[in-house]
Amino acid sequence: MPNRGFQSSVDLTMNFGLGQNALIDSLVIVWNDDKKQVIKTPKVDQLLVLDYQKANQIFKFITPVISTQFTDITNQTLDFQHIENDYVDYNRDILLRQKYSTEGPALAIGDVNGDGLDDAYIGGSQEHPKFLYIQQKNGKMLPAKTEAFNRDNYLEIVDAIFFDADNDKDLDLYVVTGSNEYDPDAPQLRDRLYMNDGKGKGNYMVQTSKQTGFFTKGQVRKMRVINGLGGKKEVVLIMDLIINIPDKEAPFFLELLKKFDFVKVKQTENAQVLEGLESSLKQMKSMREGKLRKPSISELFYNE
């Protein structure tokens, strides 16, 4: 390409400098179809005209072997491959700047069976398995047979977190379902709370209270569990997309858990989100008292 821009061009003739060398051994020319031409001991300070018809060899690219600082130990630890279901976001919301149906897989780390080793929950895409991997003493991660997860394979899991929801000193699991593949009130958008049975084997049961499972009508960008006022555990969700509203940043949702119920108490006038907002006890107090300035929090959920 001789052109660099408007009213700018370069000479098509290629020039090679030899530095302190008076001559060269050979000149190798590789054409676009990998044919190779070799010119032995060409004279310097001359113009060479290349002829494709004289390229009668095939050039073989050799990838150099580069030593790395990392070793692939996948087969020694965790055997998992994420598979995404086939869905085109733009067929539904043509003004999206990116796909929101491929945010997974969700990953949560915690010691679910109390053996001092970190275990892992990996939430898959719609119609694909969700796995709980139990770490062995040799470092191998083996999948646990959890019927509650198998029944929820139809969900799209976008986030997950381990925490002790019922204060029985074992880790329960809260998973956030999402994606813009569904209608706003579709059952696939109801979050799940899985309770550890406390028997030390990492067995989980889904909490079946009719109030359990907040409808996440969008894509969760951040999720935290914090100790709030009065020692209550609080699940904080920061949203990024409202379904059927193209490319709109959604509200910041705050949920507090008490007996696994969700109570909505207030909605402010402005639904604009402060990018990267992190909740704190001081901010929560201001939320409840309605003292936050605009742009402020869209909806606030807490338990009495």
Give the secondary structure arrangement, pairings included:
Blueprint: E1 3-5, E2 8-9, E3 26-30, E4 35-40, E5 57-58, E6 106-110, E7 119-123, E8 131-135, E9 141-143, H1 147-151, E10 157-163, E11 172-177, E12 192-196, E13 204-206, E14 220-227, E15 233-239, E16 252-256, E17 264-267, H2 281-289, E18 299-301
Parallel strand pairs: 16-18
Antiparallel strand pairs: 1-2, 3-4, 4-5, 6-7, 7-8, 8-9, 10-11, 11-12, 12-13, 14-15, 15-16, 17-18
Taking the sheet with the most strands, its summary is:
5 strands, mixed
Helix content: under 10%
Low-confidence stretches: 208-213, 245-282, 293-298
Radius of gyration of CA atoms, rounded to a whole number = 29 Å
Described by its quaternary structure, the protein is: single chain
Keywords: Signal
Pfam families: FG-GAP_3 (PF13517), UnbV_ASPIC (PF07593)
Organism: Rotaria sordida
InterPro entries: Crtac1, FG-GAP, Integrin_alpha_N, UnbV_ASPIC
